[in-house]
Amino acid sequence: MNGAISTLKCRNLRGTAESHLEWCPTNKTFSNETCERTCDDPDTCISSTSRTGLEKCVCVGDYMIQGEDCIPQNQCSCFAADKGTVLMNGESYVNSGCTRRSNCSNNQLMVEDSYHCSDDATCDVREGVRRCYCIDGYEGDGVTCTRKAVPKDCQELYVDGSSDGVYTIYPDGWPSGIQVYCEMESNGGGWTVIQRRSSAAVDFYRTWAEYKTGFEHPRGDHWLGNDYIHAITNQKEYSLRIDLTDSSSSSYYALYSSFSISDDAEKYRLSIGSYSGNSG
């Protein structure tokens, strides 16, 4: 019978010796449940009065009323298979892969939109809403995600009014960012510190590998790292300032009009421009 269910119930009539046979219509069952639902409005019970324990033929469980019939809910016109429930008229649903939005309109399930999440997005449910969400560092509707405006160096942070401190910058080729100390309040501000050496507390007699990747925290004495310095100095034109203090606390500086280093393959070859300053 194509999965249909018919129920035959035998009931003794009170006060008599008679037995009464009663057939329930297809897919209905004898029950004292009071919540029957329809395909048109699956979230609302249409049987609101109590039956005081008396069993009747009802359309309950995984069945719903459509017209005069009691049918499995997956045969309702607006049944969303991926969700496993029937949508209300006007309700939309995004499938688990975030590739399709369906809408129940005039009791018909229609594909409203087909799409794919951006490579820089993930399909997720947040605050009860499933859709494509851009990953950290990107913004957009999830289908299209663009990189947020992020600082490439301390100069770009300086323009935004930042003060001295450790910040994360995003030079070309480093989408996860690099922590650097930004000197914002002296010598015009906007300086990205690549080395600080103020005492003998930190050992600067290191290996090639250590100078390649950097050592110590940028808040104190440290070397930023040749790979990072290469990434920073090859995305724009930079100048280099070296500040020195001698044992008598006298200050000197050297300023070079341009500064960059090559990559590991070229042994981080140094390129500097013309000199000015008072360091001799």
Structural overview:
This protein is mainly β. The protein is built from three helices and 25 strands. The chain has helices spanning 154-159, 208-213, 226-233; strands at 7-12, 19-24, 29-31, 56-58, 63-66, 69-72, 79-80, 85-86, 92-94, 100-105, 108-114, 121-126, 129-134, 138-140, 145-147, 165-169, 178-183, 191-193, 195-196, 222-223, 240-245, 251-256, 259-261, 270-272, 275-277. The strands form eleven sheets. A three-stranded antiparallel sheet has the order 9-10-11, with no helix packed on it. A three-stranded antiparallel sheet has the order 16-17-18. A three-stranded antiparallel sheet has the order 21-22-25, with no helix packed on it. Strand 1 (7-12) and strand 2 (19-24) form a beta hairpin. The relative contact order is 0.06. It comes from Stichopus japonicus.
Q: What key phrases describe this protein's structure?
A:
37% strand, NELL2-like_EGF, disordered N terminus, Fibrinogen-like_C, mainly beta, disulfide bond, EGF-like domain, Gamma Fibrinogen, Chain A, domain 1, Laminin, EGF, 25 strands, 280 residues
Describe the structure in brief.
The chain has three helices and 25 strands. With 280 residues, the protein is mainly beta.
What is the averaged pLDDT score? 86
CATH architecture of the largest domain: Alpha-Beta Complex
Instruction: Give the % helix.
Output: under 10%
**Principal-axes shape call:** rod-shaped
Number of helices: 3
What structural category arises from helix and sheet content? mainly beta
Radius of gyration: 36 Å
Largest sheet: 3 strands, antiparallel
User: Which superfamily, in CATH terms, is the homologous superfamily of the largest domain?
Assistant: Gamma Fibrinogen, chain A, domain 1
The low-pLDDT segments are 1-13
Physical arrangement of strands within the biggest beta sheet: 9-10-11
CATH topology assignment of the largest domain: Gamma Fibrinogen, Chain A, domain 1
When the domains are counted, the total is 3
